[in-house]
Amino acid sequence: MQVNGTLMNSYFYCKRQCYLLGNRLNLQDDSEHVKIGREIHKQLAEGKKNTEIVIDNIRLDELTKDYAVEIKKSDAGAEGARWQLLFYLSILKSKGIVRKGKLEFLEVHENGKKTEIIELTRKKEKELKQHIEEIEALLESNEVPECTCKNSCDRCSYYEYCSI
Ligand code: SF4
């Protein structure tokens, strides 16, 4: 499977999850967390233009004249979300669309969301290329990475599989 934004994100969250997703070992995830995420995206998209933009193998939450926007429910997997957005910026750049990235975390503060602005610098581009190669090597491996269960594992669609 070609590296995409979801794989980039999960690589930073859990290598085992990345491996399972990347090798198409999909399990139905109808958990409450997934339903909430879907509903948030649906409500945000209502009444907005330029939402859910699909280009090649990426799906952007929004594209404005200045920003590619990625919306997350919380900042629990912030590092993965940053690299996911950097990956999107790189795909856009390859199409001649140069933007900064805007990450919006909806459930960070009681009084509102937290926003981060991200730029695809040369240094980040180099690091991104390296991460893409690391993910490709991971997916080609014959060994499933070990389960490194953490508190947030109950949000993962592989939770039951990993709990066996
Ligand atoms: S349940 Fe936890 S250890 Fe297993 S794949 Fe998901 S995040 Fe990784």
TrEMBL record:
Domain of life: Bacteria
Annotated InterPro entries: CRISPR-assoc_prot_Cas4 (IPR013343), Dna2/Cas4_DUF83 (IPR022765), PDDEXK-like_dom_sf (IPR011604)
Cofactor(s) the record lists: iron-sulfur cluster; Mg(2+); Mn(2+)
EC numbers: 3.1.12.1
Cofactor remark: Mg(2+) or Mn(2+) required for ssDNA cleavage activity.
Keywords: Antiviral defense, Exonuclease, Hydrolase, Iron, Iron-sulfur, Manganese, Metal-binding, Nuclease
Pfam family, one: Cas_Cas4
Transmembrane regions listed in the UniProt entry: none
Chain ranges of the DUF83 domain: 4-163
UniProt record similarity statement: Belongs to the CRISPR-associated exonuclease Cas4 family.
Function: CRISPR (clustered regularly interspaced short palindromic repeat) is an adaptive immune system that provides protection against mobile genetic elements (viruses, transposable elements and conjugative plasmids). CRISPR clusters contain sequences complementary to antecedent mobile elements and target invading nucleic acids. CRISPR clusters are transcribed and processed into CRISPR RNA (crRNA).
Full protein name: CRISPR-associated exonuclease Cas4
